[in-house]
Amino acid sequence: MTLSIDRRLLIKAGAFGLAALSTPGAAQILTARGFTHGIASGEPSAHSVLLWTRYVGSGETKLHCEVSLDESFSRIAGGGDVVASPEHDNCAKLVVTGLEPGKWYFYRFVAPDGTKSEVGRTRTLPVGEVSRFGIGLFSCSNMPFGWFNAYAHAAERGDLDLMVHVGDYFYEYRPGHYPETVMPGRMIEPDHDIVTLADYRMRFACYRLDPDLRRLHQQFPMIAQWDDHEFANDDWQNGAENHDPAMQGPWSARRAAAMRAYCEWMPVSDDLYNSFQIGTLATIFRPETRVTGRSEQLSLGNALKDQTDIAKALAAFRDGPWMASERTLMGARQEDWLYKGLAASAKAGTRWQVLAQEIVMGNLRAPAALADLTPADAPASARQQAQVLAAASKMGLPFNMDSWDGYPAARERLLRASREAGCNLVVLSGDSHNAWGNQLSLGSEPVGVEFAGQSVTSSGYETFLPTIAPRNLAALLRETNPGLTFTDTSRRGYVSLQLTPEAVQGTWHFMSTIAARTTVGTRDHTLGVKWGERRFTKA
């Protein structure tokens, strides 16, 4: 791999220790030895949890893991040995079994020379009746945009039990591409779009030095799923928007490299999709909607290319390719797994069926007035795009073909399966960088609700429509989309959810800034859904 390494940083690291480096850079990553990136835990069950660390030695190193009921490690409850190997970028993962349900545990790793990792905290999932359970929801954390204040805010809370990350954990772009200007102190490595296994590993290593992300992993177990940017923008089964086979090689090779690095660096198993049971309170389903079964995204631009009758072309597109039943996000096998799982969860008497997945599910069309609201001095391409989106909206077409909106037949199959099973469906989403509270319906019948989270740092519609006041844009979007209960298109943060047998309450937490490392001034907006109603009621 090609790295831009400042020799002065190497000297500084050697003279003063790695802690002297204030930003995650290549020098810090390449010279670090021992426990380099803290610890993490994930994919808990009632009796087990997956534990992660990274240890750089002279070669393969056997580590001993200790799990304790207390932070002083006087009440050891489990553990085991695991090897940190250069073959896996020195990452080590161990599933510890035989634990008690619904308990907080402390854990650490010990090297052969006696040095110890940081102490982590994790918990197992409860069994039986559960009166309350808290979840944090995150997506779209682009380091060059700013500070991960959302992670910092959530890491210090006492009412959350599990973190869910639904993707874009990092971005594949070179510095200066998205965003064009890197926030001071937020530089990333390597200095080019990541393509190879070494590239993806380096990007992970860079992000995982962030103190707030590190703290979040230290304090809570996580259920995680990739989205597109852990691979390349707008990817699908056989390619991606940000992949050029002529310059970057076969997509299959890049996808395999990204997938391997993700499984090495994240506290996840090798299961592409899975479910997690929280007693009788909820089943969390974690599907994979991005790279293994997804049909290629459609494009309004391609549908209108060389067409003179725009309305006729849009109608043909709407009634043909857009509605095609064979288009899928998950593939037939995974759809079957999910539908059967939803039915089994509801039949067993589980109160809530929670779908934690990558992309927005609610139906969202652009305001018809969008073209009129686009500034006259905007680039011609932007004005043209606004006109196309406004025309598409009038024909009942959505503005984002990369979300569930681009796969309406697949969405209908899922919602129908949920309705027929009698589920109380709560969908958790990310990807769009903006906050959405969507009613999910089949015709006029409510099926469930969606809490779609805003990004941790990545820019939202305030960047693309800077002349429209966010409050006015939100009002226009709600007027256009009857199922849209709440939206915010300008602020960054995360979502937290409190689940009880009678209701789910979700709160969007909006950070006051990402330009400085602070959680002061956070603002909230809350919606709730009562069991059996399958529609939002203001909490």
From TrEMBL:
Keywords: Signal
SUPFAM superfamilies per the UniProt record, alphabetical: Metallo-dependent phosphatases
Domain Phospholipase D N-terminal: 37-124
Domain PhoD-like phosphatase metallophosphatase: 137-508
Signal sequence interval, chain numbering: 1-27
Pfam families: PhoD, PhoD_N
Cross-referenced InterPro entries: Metallo-depent_PP-like, PhoD-like_MPP, PhoD-like_sf, PhoD_N, Phospholipid_Metab_Enz
Coiled-coil features, chain-numbered ranges: none
Keyword Heme: no
PANTHER family per record: ALKALINE PHOSPHATASE FAMILY PROTEIN (AFU_ORTHOLOGUE AFUA_5G03860), PHOSPHATASE, PUTATIVE (AFU_ORTHOLOGUE AFUA_6G08710)-RELATED
Protein name: Alkaline phosphatase D family protein
